[in-house]
Each structure stands twice: as C-alpha cells, then as structure tokens.
Amino acid sequence: MAKCTNKTFIMHKAAGDSDFAKLVDITEYPDLGGEKEKLDATTLSDGKKRSINGIEDMGDGLAFKSWYEKKDYEKLLAIQEAGTVDTYQVWFGENGEDGIWEWEGAMSVYPNSGGTNAVREMSFSITDEGEEELHYVTR
User: Which of 2, 7, 96, 129 could disulfide-link to 91, CB 3.0 to 4.6 Å?
Assistant: First the structure.
C-alpha cells in the first residue's frame, strides 16, 4: 500500500557524536539514488557494443526544502558555518520504519525568495563528499 510523504525527516550526527538528532521536518527531498553513468567498454577485437557502470553523479549535493523557522535556520546555519563533513540520514516514517538513507557531506542553507501571501521556506543542500556514500540502511 502506498504511503504519504508525511513524517519524512533529516537527521544529523556530527563527528564524535554517537546518536543521530532530528534536524528539521522536510517538505521536499530529491531522488535518493539513480542510474549510474554508463561507460563504453566496447573493444575493437569483437565488434560487440558493451558498457559498464560508472559512478552516480550527485551534482552539487542533495537538495531539500523545509519551512523557514528562525530556530531551524540558525541550527542549519551553525552546521554550515562549522564547515564539517558530518553524517546525515533521511528517515521515512516516525522512526525510520519505512526506510533510512545515509551519507556523509557538508551543509549549505539559505532562505528562499517569498511572495505575497506565501509560506516562508528555506532550502538546504548536503554534499556527498565523505567516505560514506549515499546508501540504504537496513535495521
């Protein structure tokens, strides 16, 4: 049965911490994974077209959206200003019961533009630059 995207969170664990802490509720998240680039591995000796999997391009990082609240923005901004590579998780479900994805990266956050009668939002991205690449966590 399909499930609603409600109760989807970003979790954070700084280097040296033993437990993850909830950062913010998110309103939008990117594709978590995708097809790897196909590399041409064709040889001239047999004339058969072949390809192998290359790396997955995560671009400039995984981009998320959240409602803007000063306390949440300042929490994310402090992580950004620390400039550290930390461990992050996306939890599906209150306790991650519907899946957890984990990776290491650095935080970048900014308030979004606004308009009349609109909800304040902020966007943040987390690079994939640590030793832990994006992967599915089993419990």
Answer: 96
Joined tokens for residue 69: 């609240």
Two tokens, residue 33: 């994974």
pLDDT tens figures, 4-50: 777 899 999 998 899 999 999 999 998 887 666 667 777 777 777 77
Question: Is 85 among the domain residues?
Answer: yes
Residue with tokens 């509720």, as numbered in its chain? 25
CB of 64 within 8 A of CB of 26? yes
DSSP 36-104: PPEEE---TTT----EEE-PPP-TT-EEEEEE--HHHHHHHHHHHHHT--EEEEEEESTTSTT-EEEEE
CA separation for the pair 98, 126 (Å, rounded): 22
Tokens matching residue 62: 């995984």
End-to-end CA distance of the chain: 21
**For residue 105, what are the domain limits?**
8-29+60-137
CA pair distance 110, 120, nearest whole angstrom = 12
CATH of the domain at 101: 2.30.110
